[in-house]
Amino acid sequence: MILLVLFAFVIILLYWLLQSYRRRILSEYLKIDNLPPNFPKRSWFSYFVRTVCLVSSWVLLSMSFMQPTVTLEHSESKPPAGGERPKVDEIAFILDVSASMTAKDSSVGTSRFVRAKELIEATIENLGGINISLMAFAGNSRILVPDTLDYLFFRILLDSTEINETQSSGTDLLSMVDAIQAKYAGSSYHKSVLLVLLTDGEDTGFLDLDDNARRQAEKTLLNHIAETASLQLTWNIVGLGSPAGTVVPNMTYQGKPVISKSNSELLEKMAKVGGGHYFRELDVPFSEIEDNILAEVAVGKGDELAPLQVQESTETISGDMRLLLCASFLLLLAGVCLPEYERRVAI
What we know:
It is a single chain. With 347 residues, the chain is an alpha/beta fold. The protein has 2 domains: 2-67 and 322-337; 90-299, Rossmann fold. The two termini are 47 Å apart. The longest helix has 28 residues, at 2-29. The chain has helices at 2-29, 44-65, 112-124, 151-160, 173-185, 211-227, 264-273, 286-299, 319-337; strands at 70-75, 90-96, 131-137, 141-148, 193-199, 233-239, 246-253, 256-260, 278-280, 311-316. The strands form 3 sheets. A 6-stranded mixed sheet has the order 4-3-2-5-6-9, sandwiched between helices. A two-stranded antiparallel ribbon has the order 1-10. Strands 7-8 form a two-stranded antiparallel ribbon. The protein is built from 9 helices and 10 strands.
């Protein structure tokens, strides 16, 4: 505000110097005695006062808009008695884009990949005011949508997501977990994040391992998931596909069709270690999966649903703002109405 006043003072000073220079130049070429007696004489003082009024009006108008408005709030219901409840600051959708997701053994006969995208679409339709993000993974991981409130932008990129979006074949669950951990461990913001992992759980890195090596690899994976609890990450996992398995379209290995099976046992362990829930898409109704995810967003894990608080907010103009607006209008009126000439006589 002080800078604004100083800026106005500089404008007035520069105007005064300019007008002084102009009068000096005119006096060298034009003498007042040579003018007709009825020629209107300009009042330099009035012109200067008009300038001061107009500049002051602009300053006061600017100052009035810098005044804050007063917000009045009215609550229709009392806050929950149990204190503040845990809140989810972000929902991060993690989508498996490996080739096995093209297998058509979902509960409605579509591919696992299409069904997973439908679940994400249905969930965000009932969200509002919470950040969402999207990560795709296969042999490696890639953030497709950083956390955002722009749901339209999210939908556009989700619709355009394809199989093998990360340009790396296979499925590496450990690499995905490490990518999630690196993302939130490196963030400067401490927030609670609900992770929604949609996958068939078939890790191609486990396929050629013996039983001991497989158990050790799974143990390492679960330990890495457990470490994410310190970052306030909760793992909700949606398992797609059938344990019996089905053929992956357009894929062969050594001339034979590739059979992909859902690893429900591993996914259930991952959800338990991650502090969340496991939903098997073949057994749990679509709407129930969606409702459970939304319930965790609404009330936080372990809390009962509290009554919503309806608030009405109104904004009023402060008294100082009204005073400045009135003063600005009066100065503007004075600057416009003040005569520039001492007399107005026709020549």
